[in-house]
Amino acid sequence: MSGIKEIRNHIESIKDTQKITNAMYLIASTKIRKAKNELDHTKPYFNALQAEIKRIFRTVDNIESRYFYPGSEEQKLDGTYGYLVITADKGLAGAYNKNVIKEALRLMDEHSNAKLFVVGEYGRAYFTAHKIPIEKSFLYTAQNPTLDRAREISYTLLDQYLAGGLTKIYIIYTDFSGGMHTDACSTRLLPFHHTHFATPASEKHVSSPFEFSPSIEDVLDNLVPSYVTGFIYSALVDSFCSEQNARMEAMESAVGNAQKLLDKLSVEYNHMRQSAITQEITEISSGAKAQRLKSVRAKEAQKRNDR
């Protein structure tokens, strides 16, 4: 630094930035708690849906449904795949967005015949900039996910799936995993495999058959869309929490780096200030010494003149 004033201005600027990053950290932590509470309030309903689908498979064999792979083995399906990519609306969240984009590109390399469905401004901007076609971009913000938004996404994907426009649907998001680790992952949303709803060995099969009205296929046609909506909503909340968690870590790191820089600048500022004080004292001492010397010489000259 060229001077004390410049260092002081730099310190004040860093302190102002540190206040902003600390505020962003607190905001992100508040948003995580709110989103997790909303998810906890809705999870029991979708867990009950999954339990009911499992109950169907415990009571009926050889179920045929357009939402499931035919037979007991998972088959390779050709055709167009749908990729639902969930990103954030902005950066300042470490590698959160880049990891999701990287996973999406990996899947597209494995199966190029695909349609992209994007949530989040970052993903829209990236794919548009790289001239990668987007089938549908959900233009509402990725902030504060709601069940209504999940339902809209679900209906859009299911319409194309049931019409034959998509043979597989994948969702690419970031799994929150309790906040300790957040990893970008891809999950096949449709079709389901029968083992996804397999009965654990510890559970007993129902011996008495159930009667389904009007048919078991119609029952599944009503249950599965709601289950898909719940899964998408859970993925939206997981992604949102992961984004805020990544932003918390980035802001915490920024606050720490700012503090290190402040400590370094404070030491430099104190050294320069001490040097300036020492120089002032030296100049004052030199001036006083010069004045005393001048006075002594003046007195000696006066004595010589008196003689």
How are the SSEs placed, and which strands pair?
Elements: H1 4-59, E1 81-86, H2 96-110, E2 114-119, H3 121-129, E3 136-138, H4 147-162, E4 168-175, E5 183-190, H5 216-306
Parallel strand pairs: 1-2, 1-4, 2-3
Antiparallel strand pairs: 4-5
Helix pairs in contact: 1-5, 4-5
Question: Could you explain how this protein is built, in words?
Answer:
There is one protein chain. The protein has helices at 4-59, 96-110, 121-129, 147-162, 216-306, and strands at residues 81-86, 114-119, 136-138, 168-175, 183-190. A hairpin with a 7-residue loop joins strand 4 and strand 5. With 307 residues, it is an alpha/beta fold. The longest helix is centred in the last third of the chain and has 91 residues, at 216-306. Strands 3-2-1-4-5 form a 5-stranded mixed sheet, sandwiched between helices. The two termini are 59 Å apart. The chain is built from 5 helices and 5 strands.
Count of beta strands: 5
Specify the number of helices: 5
Q: Describe the main β-sheet briefly.
A: 5 strands, mixed
Rg of Cα set: 34 Å
Query: What gross morphology would you assign?
Result: rod-shaped
Mean pLDDT: 78
Spatial strand order of the main sheet: 3-2-1-4-5
Q: List the uncertain runs.
A: none
Strand coverage percent: 5-15%
> What percent of the residues sit in helical stretches (DSSP H or I)?
55-70%
Distance between the termini: 59 Å
> What structural category arises from helix and sheet content?
alpha/beta
Topology order in helix (H) and strand (E) letters:
HEHEHEHEEH
